[in-house]
């Protein structure tokens, strides 16, 4: 049976739709996979020597134990957002003569072979091997490693539970948040507190039974939960949510683009992928908090520009790069109904403009870090509004890949094409280079003024630019209509 | 009203539609029949400028559809579910279509009030998104939405498919009423010969992309069509 699991897992990974049909994407994915594997392996190998060098008096295993809590939290987060549960795939098995027990074991067993479970092993295996070569007690080291594998599996199954159960999710969220909070406000030193427990797994090999028991318990909880729901109309069938209509008549003040604005707001709010992106944009307003306080960023004008462009333009970039693919499911209607292409594009530009203004306003508190920060952010906002919005729309005309709105959000590569990678250059790299040149040849003041002037020029030329872009969309219309019909 | 001039659509070397000339007059109720792959949807897609003609062109009210967007204000259509916005409720969708066709809420409501029987209580006030409706109910929404805004040309591709018998009969009544209005040109395609002969004054048969029959509907038309399709 295990052979089947593995082969199915392998196929599902390499044949998945998001894996993409185009070669560039595949190469990129393989490259990324190699890159991650190699970085993890080197981390695993180097870890021992780094720790030995930095903390010669402390057992590296003890030091690693201090970090394990962070790893656990990170894994939980990563898995919650990215690991897909293989539940839907069981539909074809329900009608075959296979017992429910077997199917349930199959689902859970399959999840044990998830890519996410192997990723940390790339680091832990080399680390374990190095420990063995360094003459650490073999039994302790090996059982410690086994314990780590059990922890990985426990996380795997906990993720299963919290993904299916909102209460469990909230409990885990509260626990994680309080751990981070306690650490942040230095109430308790979490790594120091938890390290002995993780270290105990090494010191006393018998403790391996604890993570083993955890795996068993979480497995049983999942098993019980799943087997009672092995019907098409329960877990498998996606829930139909009751539609709630919010009054959006306030958008009327925006004139002829109002109906599209309403539709875009509903698009964002009612579909998982755009909603997650919109929420991420809010989170991105905090990016500055992180960036301004760490390293050299605060001193480097080029970094300030990158932060400024990203913070005020994050929604513009995230949402804008998939215009008009967001509307791919009903693009035929957009094309056949009484919707002039120009007005459609104007409404998208309007939405992005509103987001830039909004982000510029909510990031003003960064003036706390200095007036220059605020000035750079505002100049970047004007630049985004005048220059980058047309650029985003321009690159949008290359979109021909369908996006299914109902599919999940993070890690979803659907709709990705070369345009999404290329667009980063003019949007971010160009202004950084330009700013750097201006800054080092003249002054920050001049650089800011040039950015504002460029932005305003873009705004003044907007009518013209939009006409050119509309013409481009008109030319690509048939290719888009055709491309958006292709479901994968 | 609609003039098809030497239109040809080919994918590679395979020609899927090839019509020399076809004129559809204002106020006509026009039926299009043919087997799968005959080119019915292709013709409608060309009419709506959703695909690019390989040769020739179509004019609607003297406007070349592939060169101008000016045919959009008086043309309305429902081809398939790619005309529906899945994350809207039926009401929101109707009002959206109303908005873009310059109809206010009251206009849309008064139009919808004519279709309560047709909706059979399964569309309005259901608190469901269009994507969660059944195929048949989605179709009802799409068809009724295509009547919003007093269009002069209404194009419906396979409107009878996926509908239950009662709804099919009601839809026939609706299309007949629409066709009785001499300002409205109705284009309908169907696999159901009986329905099409019931509602259309003129029927064109497509076969492998070519027009093989152009009939003014008479009581004998159904027999003639059945004879044609009996192989």
From TrEMBL, chain A:
TM ranges: 27-50, 62-81, 115-136, 142-161, 168-185, 197-219, 276-294, 300-326, 347-368, 374-397, 418-438, 444-461
Keyword Cell membrane: no
Pfam family, one: DUF5687
Keywords recorded for this protein, A-Z: Membrane, Transmembrane, Transmembrane helix
Protein name: Uncharacterized protein
Domain of life according to the entry: Bacteria
InterPro entries the UniProt entry points to: DUF5687 (IPR043742)
From TrEMBL, chain B:
Location of the ABC transporter domain: 2-227
SUPFAM superfamilies: P-loop containing nucleoside triphosphate hydrolases
InterPro entries in UniProt: AAA+_ATPase, ABC_transporter-like_ATP-bd, ABC_transporter-like_CS, ABC_Transporter_VariousFunc, P-loop_NTPase
Keyword Transmembrane helix in record: no
Keywords on record: ATP-binding, Nucleotide-binding, Transport
Keyword Transport: yes
Example GO molecular function: ATP hydrolysis activity
PANTHER family named among the record's database cross-references: ABC TRANSPORTER ATP-BINDING PROTEIN ALBC-RELATED
Protein's name according to its UniProt entry: ATP-binding cassette domain-containing protein
Organism for this UniProt entry: Spongiivirga citrea
């Amino acid at each position: 049976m295990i052979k089947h699991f593995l082969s199915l897992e392998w196929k599902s990974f390499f044949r998945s739709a998001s894996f993409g049909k185009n070669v560039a994407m595949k190469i990129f994915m393989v490259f990324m996979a190699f890159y991650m594997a190699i970085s993890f392996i080197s981390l695993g190998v180097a870890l021992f020597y780094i720790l030995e060098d930095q903390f010669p008096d402390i057992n590296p295993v003890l030091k690693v134990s201090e970090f394990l809590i962070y790893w656990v939290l990170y894994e939980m987060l990563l898995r919650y957002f990215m690991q897909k549960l293989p539940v839907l795939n069981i539909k074809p098995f329900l009608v075959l003569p296979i017992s429910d027990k077997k199917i349930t074991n199959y689902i859970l067993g399959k999840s044990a072979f998830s890519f996410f479970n192997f990723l940390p092993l790339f680091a832990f295996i080399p680390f374990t091997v190095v420990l063995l070569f360094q003459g650490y007690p073999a039994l302790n080291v090996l059982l410690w490693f086994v314990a780590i594998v059990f922890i990985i599996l426990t996380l795997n199954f906990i993720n299963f539970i919290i993904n299916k159960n909102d209460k469990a999710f909230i409990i885990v969220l509260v626990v994680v948040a309080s751990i981070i909070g306690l650490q942040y406000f230095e109430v308790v030193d979490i790594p120091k507190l938890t390290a002995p427990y993780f270290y105990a797994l090494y010191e006393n090999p018998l403790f391996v039974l604890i993570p083993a028991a955890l795996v068993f318990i979480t497995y049983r909880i999942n098993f019980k939960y799943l087997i009672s729901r092995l019907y098409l109309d329960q877990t498998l069938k996606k829930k139909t949510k009751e539609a709630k209509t919010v009054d959006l008549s306030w958008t009327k003040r925006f004139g002829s683009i109002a109906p599209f604005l309403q539709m875009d707001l509903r698009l964002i709010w009612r579909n998982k992928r755009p909603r997650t992106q919109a929420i991420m944009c809010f989170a991105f307003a905090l990016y500055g908090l992180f960036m301004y306080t760490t390293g050299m960023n605060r001193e480097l004008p080029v970094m300030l520009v990158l932060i400024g462009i990203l913070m005020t333009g994050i929604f513009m970039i995230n949402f804008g790069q998939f215009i008009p693919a967001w509307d791919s499911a009903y693009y035929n209607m957009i094309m056949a109904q009484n919707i002039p292409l120009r007005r459609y594009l104007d409404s998208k530009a309007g939405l992005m403009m509103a987001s830039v203004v909004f982000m510029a306003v909510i990031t003003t508190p960064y003036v706390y870090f200095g007036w220059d920060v605020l000035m750079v952010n505002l100049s970047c906002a004007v630049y985004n509004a005048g220059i980058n919005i047309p650029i985003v729309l321009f690159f949008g005309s290359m979109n021909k890949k369908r996006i299914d709105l109902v599919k999940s959000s993070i890690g979803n590569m659907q709709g990705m094409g070369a345009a999404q990678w290329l667009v980063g250059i003019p949007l971010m790299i160009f202004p950084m280079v330009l700013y750097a040149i201006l800054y080092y040849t003249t002054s920050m003041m001049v650089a800011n003024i040039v950015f504002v002037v460029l932005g305003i020029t873009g705004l003044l030329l907007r009518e013209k630019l939009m006409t050119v872009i509309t013409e481009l969309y008109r030319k690509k219309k048939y290719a888009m209509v055709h491309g958006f019909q292709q479901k994968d | 009203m609609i003039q098809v001039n030497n239109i040809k659509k080919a994918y590679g070397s395979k020609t899927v539609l090839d019509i020399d000339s076809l004129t559809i007059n204002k106020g006509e109720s026009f039926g299009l029949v043919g087997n799968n792959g005959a080119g019915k949807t292709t013709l409608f897609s060309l009419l709506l400028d959703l695909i690019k003609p390989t040769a020739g062109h179509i004019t609607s009210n003297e406007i070349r559809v592939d060169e101008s967007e000016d045919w959009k204000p008086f043309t309305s259509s429902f081809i398939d579910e790619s005309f529906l916005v899945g994350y809207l409720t039926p009401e929101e969708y109707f009002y959206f279509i109303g908005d873009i066709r310059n109809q206010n809420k009251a206009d849309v409501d008064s139009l919808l009030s004519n279709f309560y029987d047709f909706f059979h209580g399964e569309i309005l006030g259901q608190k469901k998104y269009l994507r969660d409706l059944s195929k048949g109910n989605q179709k009802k929404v799409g068809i009724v939405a295509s009547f919003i805004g007093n269009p002069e040309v209404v194009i419906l591709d396979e409107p009878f498919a996926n509908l239950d018998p009662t709804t099919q009969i009601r839809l026939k009544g609706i299309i007949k009423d629409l066709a009785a209005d001499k300002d409205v040109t109705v284009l309908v395609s169907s696999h159901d010969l009986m329905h099409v002969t019931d509602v259309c004054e003129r029927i064109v048969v497509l076969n492998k992309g070519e027009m093989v029959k152009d009939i003014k509907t008479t009581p004998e038309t159904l027999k003639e069509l059945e004879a044609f399709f009996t192989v």
